Amino acid sequence: MLVRSLSGSFLVLIAMLVSSAPAWALDLSLSAEGGLETNPNQLASRHNPDSDLFTQLRLRLDHDFESGAFVGLRAESILFLDEEDADRDRDRISGGYRSIFTTDAREFDYELALVRTTRDKTYVSRSTGEVAVDNGRSIPDRYDYEQTNFNASIAWRTANKTRLRVRFQHRQKDYDETPGLSNLDYEHSRIRFDAEFRLSDRNRLRAGFGLTERVFDDRRIDDESGNDISGTDLEYDYTNYWVETYFRPDQARRVSLRLSTQDRDDNGVGYKNTQYDTISIGYRHKLEDGSRWLASWRYSDLVYDNRAAADPLDEEGFDSTGHRLRLRHERSVYGEGRKVTRLLSIEYEDFDSSDPDYRYDDLILSAGLRIE
């Protein structure tokens, strides 16, 4: 806990130091919010989860160089008053290069980037509601990780103004080592293709698909009963499809809709195959006084085709169906120099599952300020 508290303090210190930098030097955003969460660890109701007060700090720093190079930092720290097992830290450092090149026919935008992400969150078991234990030994850091992504993309427009883009990603994800338990580390390579169609001045349609191959360092293929097959190495193939559109009835309002589906196939008999479908709706409304409302709703359905019991080694956990609803109001309260915005939000999520340990609901109320 001391490390996490220091992390939050360090985040504030960075913001204080950079806030005095020239406005042209950095694109800075710092938000500080406080509130109440009814189920910080998303536990089933049978564990009688306690509500708790929290503080949340977010920092964003970006700088684009004239050469085309860019750097960025994202940091987030959430600290609870009593439920310290729910505290979490996440930060991301990125750097890269973007530019344009032309041919006789058209212009191409391209970008190369390296992104490093770390996450720290105590592993709380869904079955017990307490910090996870293995053979009598506490394993709170089981799912802490460091992740490195290499991203590359290229985009261009066709003669009819359709925008096409190809994206590639290679990821290496390294979890904290837990002696005596299998290694969760993996690498994956992903390629995505998408297109944006201009239907009118106020309406856009985007669609795309992606392919991913994920290879684990030290996980076994399962047989039909879910038992490890010795001498094997687990791999996943993902196939994603998505379509989204947004419409602007006028300059003040924006409505968006997104549909996506993802199929996961293992390289064995299909014991860990899944299908994951989502529907998302968003609405944004800017009022005459300059404030704005943001609302979103997301429904998701995760289905395991063949698995009969939850596997804690899976990031997804177990099958679940549910929705998340968010309503947020933002209003500028100071506009000279750096802009100060007041933030008010309410979030609610409710998920069901065939495994009672994965059934939960959670309500978050928060208020705060953002400086940018």
How much of the sequence lies in strands comes to over 45%
Indicate the percent of residues in helices: under 10%
Structural class: mainly beta
Number of strands: 20
Number of helices: 1
| First and last CA, distance | 29 Å
Shape: globular
Strand order of the largest sheet: 1-2-3-4-5-8-9-10-11-14-15-16-17-18-19-20
Secondary-structure element pattern, one letter each: HEEEEEEEEEEEEEEEEEEEE
Mean pLDDT: 90
Unreliable segments of 5+ consecutive residues = 1-6, 15-24
For the report, how would you describe the main beta sheet?
A: 16 strands, antiparallel, barrel
Nearest-angstrom radius of gyration?
23 Å
Q: What do these coordinates show?
A:
This protein has 372 residues and is mainly beta. It has one helix at residues 2-18, and strands at residues 27-37, 52-64, 69-80, 88-102, 107-121, 133-134, 137-138, 145-157, 163-175, 186-200, 203-216, 221-222, 228-229, 235-250, 253-266, 274-286, 292-304, 320-334, 340-352, 360-371. The strands form 3 sheets. It has a 16-stranded antiparallel beta barrel with strand order 1-2-3-4-5-8-9-10-11-14-15-16-17-18-19-20. A two-stranded antiparallel sheet has the order 6-7. A two-stranded antiparallel sheet has the order 12-13. Strand 8 (145-157) and strand 9 (163-175) form a beta hairpin. The chain is globular. The chain starts with a helix and ends with a strand.
Question: Topology of this protein?
Answer:
Blueprint: H1 2-18, E1 27-37, E2 52-64, E3 69-80, E4 88-102, E5 107-121, E6 133-134, E7 137-138, E8 145-157, E9 163-175, E10 186-200, E11 203-216, E12 221-222, E13 228-229, E14 235-250, E15 253-266, E16 274-286, E17 292-304, E18 320-334, E19 340-352, E20 360-371
Antiparallel strand pairs: 1-2, 1-20, 2-3, 3-4, 4-5, 5-8, 6-7, 8-9, 9-10, 10-11, 11-14, 12-13, 14-15, 15-16, 16-17, 17-18, 18-19, 19-20
